Amino acid sequence: MSEMNHSSPSAPQSPAQSPTQSLAQRGNNRSRQPTNEAFRDFIGSGWGPRPSDPPRRSDAAPWAQARRAALGALFPGERLVIPAGPLVTRNNDCDYRFRPHSAFAHLAGTGTDFEPDAVLVLDPLTVPGQRVEADEPTHEAVLYFRPRAPRTSEEFYADPRYGELWVGVRPSIEEVEAATGIRCAHIDTLGDALAKDAGADAVRLRVVAQADAAVTALVDRVRQAAGLATDQAARQADDALAEATSELRLVKDAWEVDQLQAAVDATKAGFDNLIRSIPRARGHWRGERVLEGAFGARAREEGNGLGYETIAAAGDHANTLHWINNDGPVEPGQLVLVDAGVEVDSLYTADVTRTIPVDGRFTTAQRRVYEAVLEAADAAFARAGEPGCRFRDVHTAAMEVIAARLQEWGLLPEGVTAADSLGPEGQYHRRWMVHGTSHHLGLDVHDCAQARREMSMDAELVPGMVFTIEPGLYFRADDLRVPAELRGTGVRIEDDVVVREDGRIDYLTAAIPRTADDVEAWVSGLIAQ
Ligand code: GLY
Ligand code: MN
Ligand code: MN
Q1: How many CB atoms lie within 10 A of CB 196?
Q2: Which of 71, 86, 473, 506 is deepest in the core (most CB within 10 A)?
Q3: Ligand 1, atom 4, residue with closest C-alpha
Q4: CB 209 near ligand 1, within 6 Å
């Protein structure tokens, strides 16, 4: 942060000398801006006109409109409140970069940086119980946010969260209406809008309660004033809305699939960059951080950033599933497991793992593990393409291969076959792969997490689903049940796939090398060994 933010140095005061000031007031001890009228007139004047280019309609707008219609049809006659969420404090008066709640991003069709504290409301066009025809609109969307203030306002220069001189020119009501196709209103009118016609025999409200505690509290106040329940029943109603927004994302539309492909393509560029950085990583005391940084640089250049914290795990670190410290060296002879994904500006993310030999060549033992994991991944992919495949069958297919290979290598307990292990009383093979094989992928890396089980794990695959296939085998350095040559070896191969309209499964990650030979060629093509 620039020192310009801080007040000019003055002689330090002892605690006894410091003027009375509550801790809350001290949260921001930076210089105070002048507020006198002459200064306000001066700073608010003498600016050229704003660019007059007409704002462009976002290409996400029609898709988001269809998503809102689908959600509204589930809750006719009810007011649905979907907050973007607030800025989150990192420390003191410094916030994390803003990322809206995924339900908001999905339904508003807005991506990067739009717009702290905004709230999307689907206002009912019908009364509860009214019959609605299939293609009849059930709700009108209204987007509440804080539009930019005029240059003559104090906000313009004095508000570090919203002021134009601090965070840049923010949009006007008209601009957001043009970009989203949604009617917009000032956030200050939200309370009255939520309260309008609210009541037990009139309009009931539901809110995506996890997105913004302040908006949830506001909805509860409105409910209370209108004589509506605010207890368990209200929370259940809210949970049903959150569940519906999650389930709505189980099937991606064509625009979303394009975004996910773009995220994967950017991720490929990130992996290329990371491989090029291997020679530097090998010579660095925290080589894993060199790899992480090389990927992260591309993620910021090509997209909004990372979809989740990068795992760059060399050697035995690969056996810690969520190794995000990335503070170890990268040594000759090791494999490095990299699990990384670029989140593009629309906020869709890839989720890709490749396990890469640091020297560009797998050893015989490493290749044996790698080939087994690849075989499991291929089996899962093949099963996914079979008619009637349920989401959880994909995992089963991968586990059949993993259990078979572990039996072949003599790692299952004495007298236990792969078939025994696959039964509910067995599962011994899971010692070496405790995670699942697949999860939905989209705006969240673990997308659709609030969907009901029967809509996700137990459901048949349908066109538009995008998910990962990511089997692995993890042999820890201190695992006395595996032969010494395998200890310290961890392998995961993670691809992103889409179910096409005809039921065919396609890799979104087809351009990212995945067989052992192709990975070796990839490394040697990017690094002169
Ligand atoms: N990167 C998190 C996962 O693979 O699920
Ligand atoms: Mn994953
Ligand atoms: Mn992953």
Answers
A1: 12
A2: 473
A3: 351
A4: no
